[in-house]
Write a structure and sequence with these properties.
single chain; 486 residues; mainly alpha; four-stranded mixed sheet; 22 helices; 64% helix
């Protein structure tokens, strides 16, 4: 019996390493397949190229002939510069940066945060995997949100540490950290406003808590200091307070995925996971009222603005891990499970641990092929390079993003995913035209002479029927048509 126990103690660290390696391998192998799902990556790289080349932020658009030509607020310039510099190694360089950011956010920051909440490492790893696949592929796409997720998890950690500080010195550190996060986040992506909302909810919860306790408003003052520090640091950007005004009206001109409500029926099991996470958090209200209130607020944001549900899942993961750990007492009482959990905790808190998920992710990135979506006209763009358009070109927004990247503004696009640069009425007409409605008027009014469209799109079918248009190029995905001269 003593021999078996001795072997069990020796094998436990190896079993823990195997659990970590296998669990992260499953996640890491899925990341490359989703990274280029959205076309935004390409225009982000190109704008970053322009910023690096000019060593200045652009003030007006030079990529589209249909933009409103007003002042261009480059609200995620730091992400664009990072993508541009990493693209010096090709798209694999951009993919590597995104891979490492997501790996560190989920595999290190979020996991260690769950351990700070005294959650079981086994439960935490399992729930992080569920969080990943419940928000996949959006959580892995190469967009500025990748940096936002890291900033959000870091700020959540600051808020939780400040809620029950060990000493006043630690509080000063949290105020300083919130300022650092604010400075970085405000220049990485417009979702920095979500961080202010998170801190405000914690402040509200602190005020309610102090009112119940009576007389002691130390916690409230703490969160006032943290929130003020974050708000002031968010003004350290090229546009100052104007950026807040811009964010308030961002995406109001077109219903992007961020602005759409979640369809829980269509989501099926994923919607059920979101609701289950919320219910577990609310059930833990007495122990962590601040987390339950903030979780509910984030869930409402996610339900009304689809992609924001990712932030709710990231927030809920460590809290639910702790709650589930308490619901499963066998994790503490069973000697084998307790020994494995202890070994996992030691490895996860070790200085060398981040090397493990990072190394696995890098290997997976080079083993798994990057999938460029068929919504991007790679071969058609090569045709355009040899046969430039005779006049204005009309294409989908996704194709427009790739054309910006491929031609650096030499071939101007009709529209691209930077929807804040286009008039709302034009966005509506553009969407209708792609569905084959009132397309003649739109193309004629704007002197369009060539189109680049998916072969199966309704508008391409209309052009094939029209006597005024002829198809001059076609591949399996895209077709180029030109207006006939009369």
């Amino acid at each position: 019996m003593l021999i078996s126990e001795r072997w069990r103690d020796k094998l436990s660290p190896f079993a823990a390493l195997l659990v970590i390696a296998l669990s992260w391998s499953v996640l890491a192998c899925s990341i490359p397949r989703a990274q280029f799902k959205e076309s935004d990556t390409f225009w982000l790289i190109e704008v970053g190229n322009k910023i690096v080349h000019d060593f200045a932020l652009p003030t007006s658009d030079c990529y589209s002939y249909m933009s409103n030509h007003g002042r261009w607020i480059v609200y995620q310039w730091l992400t664009e510069v990072i993508f541009s510099l990493s693209n010096r190694a090709g798209l694999i360089g951009v993919a590597l940066v995104g891979d490492l950011i997501l790996t560190y956010t989920l595999g290190v920051l979020l996991l260690r945060q769950a351990l700070k909440f005294e959650a079981s490492p086994l439960v935490s790893i399992f729930l992080i995997a569920i969080t990943f696949f419940a928000t996949y592929p959006d959580i892995a796409t190469l967009r500025p949100q990748l940096f936002s997720f890291a900033c959000f998890v870091l700020l959540h950690g600051v808020a939780e540490t400040a809620w029950a500080p060990a000493e006043r010195r630690s509080l000063r550190r949290q105020v300083f950290l919130s300022a650092l996060i604010g400075v970085a986040w405000v220049n990485l992506h417009a979702s920095f406003a979500l961080g202010a909302g998170l801190l405000f909810v914690y402040l509200l919860a602190a005020l309610i808590s102090n009112l119940k306790e009576g007389g002691n408003y130390f916690r409230t003052k703490t969160f006032v200091a943290i929130l003020v520090s974050y708000l002031l640091s968010s003004l350290i950007n090229p546009y100052g307070f104007e950026l807040w005004n811009f964010v308030a009206r961002l995406n109001n001109n077109f219903e992007t995925q961020e602005m759409k409500a979640l369809d829980f029926v269509a989501l099926g099991p994923y919607g059920a996971i979101y609701i289950l996470l919320l219910l577990v958090m609310l059930a833990n209200f007495k122990r962590k009222p601040q987390a339950a209130i903030a979780g509910l607020a984030l869930f409402v944001c996610g339900a009304t603005h689809a992609r924001l549900i990712i932030y709710f899942c990231l927030f809920a993961c460590p809290h639910v891990s702790r709650a589930v750990t308490e619901f499963l007492p066998t994790l503490r009482t069973n000697r084998l499970m307790a020994q494995l959990d202890l070994s996992l905790a030691r490895i996860l808190n070790a200085w060398f641990f981040p090397i493990i998920p990072v190394a696995i992710s890098i290997i997976a990135l080079f083993v798994q092929p990057m999938l460029v979506p068929r919504s991007l006209p790679l071969r058609a763009a090569e045709y355009l390079a040899l046969h430039p358009p005779r006049g204005r070109l009309f294409s989908t927004a996704h194709a427009g993003s790739y054309l910006m990247y491929r031609f650096h503004g030499l071939i101007k696009v009709f529209m691209d995913p930077r929807l804040d640069l286009y008039d709302p009425a034009l966005c509506a007409r553009f969407a209708a035209a792609l569905h084959g409605d009132h397309w003649r008027e739109l193309l004629l009014e704007n002197n369009v002479r060539e189109t680049l469209l998916p072969v199966n799109s309704p508008l391409q079918s209309e052009l094939q029927k029209s006597a005024d248009w002829s198809e001059i190029y076609s591949d399996n995905d895209f077709a180029i048509s030109t207006l006939r001269d009369h």
